[in-house]
Amino acid sequence: MINDVILKRFETPDEVRVFEKGRFELIHIAGTTIGRATYEPGWKWSVHVGVQLNQSMCQVEHVGMVVSGRATAAMADGRIIEMKAGDVFYIPPGHDSWVVGEEAYVSIHMLGAEDYAHK
Questions:
Q1: Which of 47, 62, 70, 79 could form a disulfide with 91 if both were Cys (CB 3.0 to 4.6 A apart)?
Q2: DSSP of 1-69, one letter per residue?
Q3: Among the listed residues 4, 17, 104, 105, the one whose alpha carbon sits nearest the alpha carbon of residue 64
Q4: How far apart are the C-alpha atoms of 66 and 56, rounded to whole Å?
């Protein structure tokens, strides 16, 4: 049992995973891993993350919230869902994703962060 309050900030994450046009910062706290994704305009998962993993679609399950910008979740069945600031999302495994527009996309991941963009 943890009896102390623990405070952490994404400005000093426990781990950072960097890839072209993006980064994923991780905080490990109370047995949980929380991530912050930051993607530049033009970022696409299959191009900038999947290639490094030899995968065409992300196989990680995500629960999170969009902080700023817009992005898609493009499902294997052809559905394309656009997410924007304020949206809370669940995305099952088997999807691609890309930034929409000219603003950076930032989201917080409460499920799936530990396995995301991990070799």
A1: 62
A2: ---S-----TTS-SEEEEETTEEEEEEEETTEEEEEEEE-TT-BHIIIIIHHHT-SSB---EEEEEEES
A3: 105
A4: 23
CA-CA-CA-CA torsion sign (49, 52, 58, 61) = negative
Q: Are the C-beta atoms of residues 46 and 57 closer than 8 Å to each other?
A: yes
Report, in angstroms and rounded to the nearest whole number, the Rg of the chain calculated over CA atoms: 14
Q: Can you read off the two tokens belonging to residue 6?
A: 């623990």
Q: Is 86 exposed, middle or buried (0-12, 13-18, 19+ CB in 10 A)?
A: exposed
pLDDT at 2 over 70: no
Predicted pLDDT at 3: 82
Phi and psi (nearest 5°) for 84? -135, 170
pLDDT tens digit sequence for 6-21? 999 999 999 999 999 9
Specify the pTM.
0.93
Contact 26, 64 (CB under 8 A): no
Cα angle 15, 4, 114 (rounded to 5 degrees) comes to: 25
